[in-house]
Amino acid sequence: MSGQYDEICLATKPMTKQRITVAKGDGIGPEIMDATLRILNAAGAEIEIDEIEVGERVYLSGNTSGIAKESWNIIRRNKVFLKSPITTPQGGGYKSLNVSTRKFLGLYANIRPCISLHPYISTKHPQMDIVIIRENEEDLYAGIEHQQTDEVVQCLKLISRPGSEKIVRYAFEYARVYGRKKVTCFTKDNIMKQSDGLFHQVFDEIGAEYPEIEKEHWIIDIGAAKVADTPEVFDVIVMPNLYGDVVSDIAAQITGSVGLGGSANIGETCAMFEAIHGSAPMIAGQGIANPSGLLQGAVMMLNHIGQTEVAEKIQNAWLKTIEDGVHTVDIYKEGTSKKKVNTVEFADAVIANLGQKPVQLVGVEFRKDAKFHLPPYQRKAQKVKALKGVDLFIHWHGTDANILAEMLKPLNNGKMNLSMITNRGIKVWPEGFEETFCTDHWRCRYKPVDGHIPSKSDIIELLQLAEQHGLDSIKTENLYSFDGVDAYSLGQGQ
Ligand code: NAD
Questions:
Q1: How many Cβ atoms sit within 10 Å of the Cβ of residue 362?
Q2: Span from the CA of 289 to the centroid of ligand 1 (angstroms)
Q3: Which of 67, 100, 277, 288 to mutate to test ligand 1, by most ligand atoms within 8 A of the CB atom?
């Protein structure tokens, strides 16, 4: 086996000292970072460290972003960031530093290798060896939310072509460079035909450029179930942000311990490496935390900066330590484990094993020539875009769509006709069902009368008419076709 922990290798020359930014975070963060850095130093990692403070103390000092401006400058200058977990205080408008770091620095790819270390770590899945590649910047994580009526709140799901192309290409490159056989895509495009449909379409388009790699697509619900049940059938899995968030935790958990997983967040210029787990405040300060997750992040970082030999040395020593049964309390199991150790003792054991390889577990041999081919996104020729109508969203307290349709009749400028009303996506007029439950949030679709070519002025007139007739319009969404193909969803039941 080779390369399953490998990471993108940027142009940085191996074995020149690399300045990296380190944040010890809070909770168990400082303990696991100290242990990790000690192992890196002992293994001969050629790094120089700039330490910054992020997390709870910064938040509670009144900085709602959890990080000072000067710290951003250091992260951007060094381009490589090793971060311990941090605690985001509940409520109070505190912004998640993890989400902002990924988005500010354009870290579009989140990579989580999930491998089982059977029989040394208890797992129901001894054959598991998958890499989850999660889109990291868009989807519902754009965080664009609005309350629109008393009863309905909206969160915009944004899937872009550049975002999808970048992550899908990254997944195929990952598979190509590291000799993986298959890339699977998870979406829910049977329901979200436009947004997830675009992701799936891009997967098919880019996948066609990699004939040697097997490709498949699963609907996310059954795909996630299959990961939980039979992970050995998967290899590399790529998916949009929210699904990736959930499925990567499931995948890490079923390897036997979330505490063992590391993750890389890769962008075009910067990269951040971390443990999958959080700051575990319940065990903070006790010196018993497992530093393996952060160490795995650090190994990915070393590969990323071209120090593959050091990465390999650490990874093999770590595997040997796990195999020796030297375990922290979270993975300790009578019978399998040999020695229960604390954080410092675990790091000592890994250091003592540097230069050794595991005997039963498969040792790693990282590729020294890992190069990703990630050309910049090329915008395609603009399509012919035509306005086909408008969805006018109304806040109305009634429950009978037939009454609302009557109220909407005066909104008639001779150019646009009411063609459909939906409530939470399901058609309720014409010919709705009495049984359908309705909220106070109504989508009223207007289409042009025969022969009329609609314009933005028609929509403005429609909004003015709604205002004149005392209807509470919340927003409009224009209906478009691109190159003659209608690009909006139908009402469910339409
Ligand atoms: P958590 O991952 O911190 O803890 C979950 C469970 O796993 C706890 O029982 C904990 O004791 C255990 N655990 C986690 N890491 C361990 C380790 N290295 N060694 C031994 N046991 C370990 O999740 P949580 O309790 O939901 O979150 C705690 C805090 O962490 C929250 O404030 C959350 O916002 C934050 N968090 C931060 C990050 C990050 O910085 N990347 C990620 C997730 C959660």
A1: 14
A2: 10
A3: 277
Lowest mean pLDDT among 227-236, 271-280, 369-378: 369-378
Domain boundary pick from 303, 337, 352 = 352
Is residue 457 included in any domain, yes or no? yes
Residue 455 banded pLDDT, cuts 50, 70, 90: very high
| In a shared domain, residues 213 and 256 | yes
- Residue 12 pLDDT grade (very low, low, confident, very high; cuts 50, 70, 90): very low
**Spatial separation of the C-alpha atoms in residues 302 and 452, rounded to whole Å:** 62
Q: Do 158 and 82 lie in a common domain? A: yes
211 & 326 share domain: yes
Number of neighbours of residue 292 by Cβ within 10 angstroms: 29
Q: For residues 295 and 405, state if they share a domain.
A: no
pLDDT digits (tens, 9 = 90+) for 143-160: 899 999 999 999 999 999
Q: Are residues 403 and 325 in the same domain?
A: no
The number of domains in the chain is: 2
What is the domain extent for residue 470?
A: 385-486
Give the CATH number of the domain where residue 471 resides: 3.30.70.1570
In a domain, 170, yes or no: yes
Contact 484, 390 (CB under 8 A): no
Check residue 493 and give left, alpha or beta (phi > 0: left; psi -120 to 50: alpha). left
Distance CA 7, CA 262 (A): 12
Tell me: do 397 and 318 sit in the same domain. Answer: no
Q: Are 343 and 32 in contact (CB under 8 A)?
A: yes
Closest ligand 1 atom to Cα of 89:
32
CA angle at 110 for the pair 51 and 70, rounded to the nearest 5°: 25
User: In angstroms, what is the span from residue 246 Cα to ligand 1's centroid?
Assistant: 15
Residue 293 and residue 169 share a domain: yes
Q: Give yes or no for residue 206 having a pLDDT over 70.
A: yes
Do 288 and 398 fall within a single domain?
no
**Assigned domain for 213 exists:** yes
How far does residue 311's CA lie from ligand 1's centre (Å)? 25
Give Cα separations from 129 to 91, 145, 225 (angstroms): 37, 37, 16
Give the separation between CA 444 and CA 152, rounded to whole angstroms. 16
Residue nearest to atom 31 of ligand 1 (CA): 87
The predicted structure's pLDDT at residue 8: 45
Distance CA 473, CA 491 (A): 19
